[in-house]
Specification:
61% helix, 2 domains, single chain, mainly alpha, 8 helices
Length: 174
């Protein structure tokens, strides 16, 4: 998936990055900094506001559960707005040009059918299998009706947000 640059804004002013745990940095960051950082995980202002408002989190599983719950409450319009800010899946370096062509064609067909970009989490998929995973999923999901695909897409957005959130918190600390 797209590489998201993780902001350095989560450092606590006046403290060195080595003196606090990553989750502590997230919990104590100014609300607007935390909100901006969360928007790099999922482009939903209401989601970011809700996750920010429920700080502090005692541990990473609690943060991920709160993020998941907030994502489940997104309206179809909010999901569409979040999707509008997503980008196409990135292929691993060294992928053949034909693979790029196949993926672009599949994504174009998907966008024509569903009206938004194809999203999928490839967390846990080896780089060598990512292309096959993405192409298999997009071909399979092209067979979905719009309502079923809306649910699958919302779940993929939640998975992407949680994966990005784990990276965000991991990079916020020492």
């Amino acid at each position: 998936m797209p590489a998201h640059r993780l902001p350095d804004r989560l450092a606590i002013p006046g403290q060195s990055r080595g003196t606090c745990a990553p989750l502590d940095a997230f919990n104590t960051a100014p609300a607007e900094s935390a909100r901006r950082a969360l928007l790099t995980c999922l482009h939903s202002p209401r989601w970011a506001d809700r996750v920010t408002a429920h700080r502090p989190y005692p541990d990473l599983p609690s943060l991920l559960a709160a993020a998941d719950e907030a994502a489940y409450d997104l309206t179809p319009r909010e999901v569409a707005q979040a999707l509008a800010r997503e980008s196409l899946p990135h292929l691993p370096p060294g992928t053949y040009e034909a693979a790029h062509t196949a993926l672009n064609a599949a994504c174009a067909a998907y966008e024509a059918k569903f009206g938004h970009v194809f999203v999928i989490s490839v967390k846990g998929v080896s780089p060598g299998e990512a292309l096959d995973h993405v192409l298999t999923a997009i071909r399979s999901r092209l067979a979905n009706d719009p309502e079923d695909e809306r649910q699958v897409t919302a779940e993929e957005l939640r998975r992407l947000a949680k994966g990005r959130l784990v990276e965000l918190v991991a990079h916020a600390g020492p």
